[in-house]
Amino acid sequence: MIKKIGVLTSGGDSPGMNATIRAVTRSALKKGMQVYGIYDGYSGLVEGDIEELDRSSVSDILFRGGTILGSARLPEFADIKVREKGIENLKKYGIDALVVIGGDGTYRGALELTKMGINCIALPGTIDNDIVGTEFTIGFDTALNTIIEAIDKLRDTSASHHRCSVVEVMGNKCGDLALYASIACGAEIVITPESEFDEEEVLEKLRHIDEERKKKRHAIVVISEKMTDVEVLASKISESTGFSGRSTVLGHVQRGGSPTASDRLLATKLGDEAVELLSKGLGGYCVGLIDNRVRSILIEEALSLPKTSRKALYELQKRMV
To answer: Is 176 a catalytic residue?
Structure first.
C-alpha cells in the first residue's frame, strides 16, 4: 500500500509542469497519501531537498508557467552510487514511489530507480514534443502558440519591407514545433531534422516565389534549431534572391508563459493517471495521450521506439504553399 509519494520536475522547464504537480498532489491527497515535493529534479533528490506538500502548497499554480519545484539536469545520476544516495533520502522520508515530470533523460532516471526498487511513473513535460508514448507533451501547445504569435508579428514587418524572415524555433532533434507552426502560420518553407536541409533548394524556392508571385511581398521560413546558422542563411537569401533576408532566433521565450487550456487539461489528466498507477503498485510506466485517450506504456518500451514521422503533415504543408 503506497502511503507517501514524491514528485519532481527535471530537465528543461515547460508550461504546464505546475499544473501537473497540482494534479499529482491533489489526486494523491484524495487517496489518503502524503505528497512530498523534491526541489531541482534529481539534484534535489540526491541533496535531500525535500518538503511535504498539502493542498495549499499547490493552490493558484495551475495557470503559472515554469515549475514551483525548480528543475535541473544531473548527468551524474547515471552513476548507481549517486542514485543510491537519492534512494537513501527517499527512505529517510518514508517515500514509497515517485512521479517524475520531464523529457527522455528524466525517463531514463525513472527507469533506473524503478529497477532499484522505487516505483516511478514518468510524465512527458517538454516543449519539444520529442517523447515517444504520447502524441503531445505537456508544454508543446503553449510553446507552439508563442511561436505562432511571434511569426504573425514578424509577417507584418516582413511584408512592409519585402523581406524573408528566417525564424529559428526550438525542438531539440524533433521538428514538431517547426512543422506545426509552419502550417498554422502559412510559412513558405519549413526545415526540420526529419525533412533535412538543402540550402540551394531553399534558395531556389525563394527565387521562384519572388519571381513568379509578384504580389507576394514577403516569405516566411521556419527552421528547427541546430540545423544551420540562420544568420548566414538570411545573408545568402539577401544575396541570391529578391528578398531581404532577416533571421530571428526565438530562443527561451518559447519556454515561458501561462500554459494554454490544452496543456492544463493534458497535465491534469496525466497527473491523475500517474497517481492511479502508483496506487495499484505499478512502476516503470510512462503516461501519455494516444488516439486522444490517456494511456500508459513501459518506459523501457517508450525509450526503444523511434519518434513517428509526421509525413502526412509535411505533405499538407507542401500543398498549402
So the answer is: no
State the Cα–Cα distance between residues 278 and 57, nearest whole angstrom: 21
Return mean pLDDT, the chain: 94
pTM above the 0.85 mark?
yes
Residue in 40, 96, 104, 128 annotated catalytic: 128
Which grid coordinates belong to 123?
510524465
Q: pLDDT for 40-78, tens place per residue? A: 999 999 999 999 999 999 999 999 999 999 998 899 999
Q: Are 50 and 40 in contact (CB under 8 A)?
A: no
d(CA 209, CA 207): 5
Which are the contacts of 157, defined by CB distance < 8 A and separation ≥ 6? 163
pLDDT digits (tens, 9 = 90+) for 165-217: 999 999 999 999 999 999 999 999 999 999 889 999 999 999 988 887 666 78
SS3 string of the chain? CCCEEEEEECCCCCCCHHHHHHHHHHHHHHCCCEEEEECCHHHHHHHCCEEEECHHHHCCCCCCCCCCCCCCCCHHHHCHHHHHHHHHHHHHHCCCEEEEEECHHHHHHHHHHHHCCCEEEEEEECCCCCCCCCCCCECHHHHHHHHHHHHHHHHHHHHHCCEEEEEEECCCCCCHHHHHHHHHHCCCEEECCCCCCCHHHHHHHHHHHHHHCCCCCCEEEEEECCCCCHHHHHHHHHHHCCCEEEEEECHHHHHCCCCCHHHHHHHHHHHHHHHHHHHCCCCCEEEEEECCEEEEEEHHHHHHCCCCCCHHHHHHHHHHC
